[in-house]
Amino acid sequence: MPSITQMIEAATKVIQSLTDNEKAPLHVGEVMACWTYLAFVGNIITIEEVAMNTVTDTELKQLFTDSLKVALSHKEEISEFMRKEGVVLPVAPERKPNSEPGAIPLGAKFTDDELVNTLNLNFVFASDLCAAAASQCLRTDLGLMFLKFQTEKLSLGFKAKDLMKKRGWLKMPPYYYPPGLPD
């Protein structure tokens, strides 16, 4: 069975073949979507770098490594797009230096559980942001870029959910049993 990424790539090729790929100027909503997503990604990179200096679980560190790689690629791709379109880039936070997790006192650092749940919120928010942006884009090239970003974040979210279940870090609401439901 093909992966989600392969299915999205196939759909993207079909959509591209159906459009005239005319590059009209960006509309205000497209510019705002780009600017907002880039500002968001810049801050997420900071959180991921801090987490890389904090986590000790090897699988979680790999998830943060993968997530940081995706965030950096999104930052580069959308920054390049915005520069070509003449859109001013938001100010990004400074990159964080590497440090040793053991050098941070226990009460002063986030736990692995707290960090992975924050990371998961990033995946949820980024997916929603990208879906809204893609649906509002008139330019196919930009809509497809946001669709690709969304797919990559969703893929990471599935990995995070599996790890969170495995480690007992997944926060789930209680089950709902409506009144009158047969046993």
What attributes does this structure have?
DUF3231 domain-containing protein; mainly alpha; 183 residues; Ferritin
Task: Please provide a brief summary of the model.
The protein is mainly α and 183 residues long.
Secondary structure layout:
Layout: H1 4-18, H2 28-52, H3 58-85, H4 112-136, H5 140-167
Helix pairs in contact: 1-5, 2-3, 2-4, 3-5, 4-5
Say what oligomer this is: single chain
Count of DSSP strands:
0
In CATH, the architecture of the domain at 25-91 and 110-167 is Up-down Bundle
- Biggest sheet, open or closed, and with what strands and sense? none
**CATH homologous superfamily heading of the domain at 25-91 and 110-167:** Ferritin, core subunit, four-helix bundle
- In angstroms, what is the radius of gyration? 19 Å
Low-confidence stretches: none
Spatial separation of the terminal alpha carbons: 36 Å
By DSSP (H or I, 4+ residues per run), the number of helices equals 5
Structural class given helices, strands, pairing? mainly alpha
Outline: globular
Average predicted confidence as pLDDT: 90
CATH class group of the domain at 25-91 and 110-167: Mainly Alpha
Percent of residues in helices: 55-70%
Q: How much of the sequence is in beta strands?
A: under 5%
Looking at the structure, the CATH topology of the domain at 25-91 and 110-167 is Ferritin
- Please provide the ordered H/E string of secondary-structure elements: HHHHH
